[in-house]
Amino acid sequence: MADFLTTTGTSFQLENIIIEAKTKLVLVSPYLQLSKTLFERLKDSSTKGVKIKIVYGKDELKPNEKNSLAELKNVDLYYFQNLHAKCYFNESKMLITSMNIYEFSEKNNREMGVLIDREADKQLFEKAVEEVKSIIQSSEIIENKKTERKFATGTNDNGGQKNRKSNFPPTIGYCLRCETRIPFNPSKPYCPDCYAIWAEYSNPLYEENVCHSCGEFELTTMEKPLCYDCYKKVSAR
Ligand SMILES: [Zn+2]
Ligand SMILES: [Zn+2]
Question: How many angstroms does the Cα of residue 182 sit away from the middle of ligand 1?
C-alpha cells in the first residue's frame, strides 16, 4: 500500500530516497535549487556509482547550481520547459508530491506526498516510471559541465596577462542569494532586492549558498560572505 505523507514526511522520504539509492536515482522537479544537505547526499550517491537523472524545468540553472552539479559523476541533466510534476524515485521507492526539491528544508509550507513501494505497488510504480521516461524523451539534454566564469577585472587589468593577483579584488561579485552580478563589496554582498528581504531580520549569520567573490556553492553569511579561498586572497592583500 502507498503511504500518505505530510510536509515533514515528504522531506524525510525525499532524503531517504537519495540516501538509499543503490543503482539509480531519478529526480523530477521544476525548480531545482539543491540545499547543501541534499547536494551532499547526491554527492555520496554519485560517488557510490548510482546513476542519477535530474529533470528540471521553468528556470534556467544558475551558474552556481550548474557548477555544483558538474562536480557530480554519473549525472544526466534534462530540461523540460513545461514541467510541473514532482516525482523522485530510486530502484525501490518513489515519492510523488507537491514539493519542489528546493522546498526540502522549508518547514512552513504545507506539502503532501505519496510514497510508493515498488514491491507492494508494482503497477502504480511502473506507470509513473513510464510517464517519467516519456517526459525525459521529450526533454532537452543539458550538458553537465561547469560554466566558465571569470572575474571582471575592470579597466586597469594588465593587458590581458594571466597574473592571478591582478584579478583581485574583482570589481564584480555575486549576490549571496540570487547570484545576480553586483559590485564586489564584501560588506554589501546582496543585490538591493535580496538586501531588502535580508534586512527584515538583519541576521548576520543567516546562511546563504554562494560566495560573493567567486560565485561558487559555499556556505556564506552576511558576516562571512566569501569562501575560504577568496577570503584568504582578500586578506593576503
Ligand atoms: Zn540578490
Ligand atoms: Zn569564493
Answer: 9
CA of 80 to the centre of ligand 1 (A): 25
Per residue in 15-59, pLDDT (tens digit) is 999 999 999 999 999 988 888 888 999 999 999 999 999 999 977
Q: Which ligand is closest in space to the CA of residue 180?
A: 1
| pTM passes above 0.70 | no
Looking up residue 121, the CATH number of its domain turns out to be 3.30.870.10
Among the bound ligands, the one closest to the CA of 189: 1
Higher pLDDT, 140 or 165: 140
Cα 91 to its chain centre, rounded Å, is 23
What's the CA-to-centroid distance between 196 and ligand 1, angstroms? 9
Distance 181 CA to ligand 1 centre (A): 8
pLDDT of residue 168: 67
Whether residues 91 and 34 fall in one domain: yes
Strand order in the sheet with 87-90: 3-5, 113-117, 93-97, 87-90, 24-28, 51-56, 75-79, 140-142
